[in-house]
C-alpha cells in the first residue's frame, strides 16, 4: 500500500515533483519534500515524548564544542524548541543558543 502525497496547504492529492520541489496545481503551493516527512516523534533518553516548550534536565556533563563552557549534569533547560532533526533540540543556556542531542536529556 502506497502513501498518497498531499499538499500541506490545501490537502489535495494532485501533487507533482518538478525536479527541485513539490508543486500543488490546485493552490500553486511549492515546498521541499522535508515538510511531507515531518510529524516524527521526538523522545528523550527515557523514551518520553518531547514537545516545544517542555522543560528538560541534562543527564550528563557536556562539553560545548568551540567553547570552554561545560553544561553540568542536572542543569534544567526550559522552553526547548524541536528541530527538523528528531535527535536534536534547540534551547538557550546561560544566554547562548545551543543544540542538544535528545539522548542526553530527560523530561
From TrEMBL:
GO terms for molecular function: hydrolase activity. It holds the Pfam family Zn_Ribbon_YjdM. Keywords: Hydrolase. SUPFAM superfamilies: Prokaryotic SH3-related domain, Zinc beta-ribbon. Residues 6-32 form the Protein YjdM N-terminal domain. Signal peptide: none annotated. Belongs to the YjdM family. This is Phosphonoacetate hydrolase. It comes from Apibacter mensalis. The lineage of its organism: Bacteria, Pseudomonadati, Bacteroidota, Flavobacteriia, Flavobacteriales.
